[in-house]
Amino acid sequence: MSILQRITSTWRRLIEPSASITDPERRLKSRFLIRTLAILFPIGFFFTFLPLLILPQANWLRDTDILFVLPALALLAFAYGWAHRGEHEKSVWWLSLVGSIIIFIIAVQDGDVEDLVYFLLVLFLASMFLPPRWLWSVFIGQVILVFWAPFVSPVPVDLVEFVTSEVAFLVVGFALILLLNTYREQLETLHQRLLRQRERQYRELFEILFEGMVIVRDGVIEHVTESFATFVGRRRETLIGRPLLTLFPPESHAIIKHILAEKKSPHAHEVVAWNAENQHVYLEVVGKVFYFDETPVHILAFRDITHRKHMEQELQYRAHHDVLTGLPNRAALLARLQQMIDEHQNAKNNSGAFALLFLDLDRFKLINDSLGHAVGDQVLREVAIRLQSARREDDIVARLGGDEFVLVLTDVHSPHEAEQVAKRLLDVLRQPIRVNDHELYVDASIGIAMDIGDYTSAMTLLQDADIAMYHAKAEGRGTYRFFKTAMREELQRTHAMKMELRRAIQHQQFVPFYQPIFNLQQNRVVGMEVFMRWQHPERGVISPETFLPLLEEMGALYTVSLSVYEQAFRDFSQWKRTILHETAAWLHVNVDTLQLMQSEFVQDLLTRIEAHGLSPSDIAVQVHEPVLLSRSVMVEKTLQMLQRAGVHLVIDDFGTGYSSLTLLHHVKPAAVMLDRTLIEWLDSVEYVRVLKGLVNLMHAMQVTIGIEGIETEAQLHRLHQLAFEWGQGYALGRPMSSAAAMRWWHSPPVGAE
């Protein structure tokens, strides 16, 4: 590299700003400062040091103040002008002109006209950052003063020094003006470039925001982002030029106008907008006003909160409604009931009343357990629809949960009105419900509580109706009962009974009792029927009518029944080994819909039979005729599986339902046991003929026929004459415990305990 190239490279490094300055504007200003000094120093060197070498005899060149005045004062002037540019332009302009005149007067009076240019140059540098027309006025004024100085100076002027100074002033002045103009052009170009770059960046940022941005001028949309257009379901070009308020329904206009009237909205506001399909869109908006050319322009930022609002509405709905049926839930019902009670209490004329009907579906758990919760849910929805269709216009239907529903009769003048509604509800619910391939029958128990102004708590009213419903369920199901104060005491007893039942289950206090079944023609035992009894440690043996409904309500009946079956299988196995030997006798176990609707019942029963060394052919399941009449697919399937395994089917209480030959042909029972109420027919000649015909029909169908409830020797004799095959009753043997049954087998007297 040559010496000249090295000098040039070094010079460029000196005049270039530091690489640490990254801001474009600061970098340009730094470059201007360095290049200004780079021009001033060579000129100062040229006019200060070089003449000393060329003209050593010139005395004026030996003034030491001239040696430093130009660079030192140039720096000072530059700092002054830099600090005050654009802020006190008028003050700097006056200071430059007045200062120039004062320096001119002093220089002329002192006869130092030659140095005038240096001091004027300092003031010129101080005014460099004035606007161009102001800067030129200062420079021209100073030029006039410089040329005028020799003519007004009282001291003769050295022409060589004066011309040199004046040339230096003109050269430096023009050079600085040109440099300053170049700087200003570059700065303006930089500003424009930065402005375009930042505008492009802001536009890109503006467009990619998830928030929808809208620029509004005089209430008219000037620009929108794609996000906002998406929010309102419209194209951007259709929104530009459109009045902003046309996108919002009237109820949102006040909020939008309020935001446009403020300089800045401190809080977000929720508004509703219309989309292209005139559907509501929920938006959250904040706004701020900006001024462009003294014209206010509003920038509004919108956020789509439709999903959030729908979620809030959904949560609000779910808080007060049952999700499955859409009916009001417990919370909503209690709130409405309390309001009605308070209004009733505060009314001047409270002659009216309202009634609360508490409905609980009977044996609904069987549907869930056997057919699945999906079918159960469809049944509940159908029940809700039927209740809604059966209610009066102002009545309220609610679902409390599970299979519990409430109907509030808002204007009732007598208990008779509530009773009529309850009957209508029961009739509506008794209609078959078709779900997939299943035809289901549901019934309900209804408790009724009336408020004639004596209730102060909605919860108390609901509890009283609940108590009445339990009484309806306990008294036969499928019916209704009005609440009575005495029911609360009975409810307490029921709760106490449930506690005792839980202890009884824990300590296995449920045991089998046995009643013999005789072959009336051969006068021998052909089977033992199993009955469940509660062996209470204090109250002795308790019959099932007392506790079976409670066990079913507690959901424990299935487990307890299997436990009793297992004890019976163990006893019967022992009897076969020790007493019966090869005697043909069956153990009859009673099963109801609850067991037959359980998918695992067949396996549970067969497992226990085999565990005690018995064969399925040793067992007969007795099913009440009404269970078969329900024609439940699950019940029929369970019975078929048991029959295929070898278990005998006996229809119990035959004649109490809609008995038909089709039913007998369909289920193919091994035997039928006529209900005990038909024993009374033996006293009627006409009905005896019916019984005789029924016996002949069963023999023709190869079905064994028997009858229950035999209590006298005369009945035994008459049944023998009618060719009845099986008989059961107190005249043949009462239900007895396991130990008593063992003794009875050894010596079976008729009527033995």
Features:
single chain; 21 strands; 18% strand; 753 residues; alpha/beta
Summarize the structure.
This protein has 753 residues and is α/β, with parallel strands linked by helices.
Largest sheet: 8 strands, mixed, barrel
Q: Low-confidence parts, pLDDT < 50 over ≥5 residues?
A: 17-21, 58-88
| Percent range of helical residues | 40-55%
- State the separation between the terminal residues, measured CA to CA: 134 Å
With strands numbered from the N-terminus, the spatial order across the biggest sheet is: 13-14-16-17-18-19-20-21
Question: Mind sketching the topology for me?
Answer:
Blueprint lengths: L2 H13 L8 H25 L1 H5 L9 H21 L4 H22 L5 H11 L5 H21 L6 H50 L3 E6 L2 E5 L1 H6 L4 H4 L10 H12 L7 E6 L5 E13 L2 E10 L1 H15 L9 H17 L6 E10 L1 H8 L1 H18 L5 E6 L2 E9 L2 H15 L3 E3 L2 E3 L2 E9 L6 H17 L5 E3 L3 H21 L3 E10 L4 E13 L3 E3 L1 H11 L2 H24 L5 E6 L1 H4 L4 H11 L7 E6 H5 L3 H13 L2 E7 L6 H7 L3 E4 L10 H16 L3 E4 L5 H9 L4 E2 L10 H9 L7
Parallel strand pairs: 11-12, 14-16, 16-17, 17-18, 18-19, 19-20, 20-21
Antiparallel strand pairs: 1-2, 1-5, 3-4, 4-5, 6-8, 6-11, 7-8, 9-10, 13-14, 13-21, 14-15
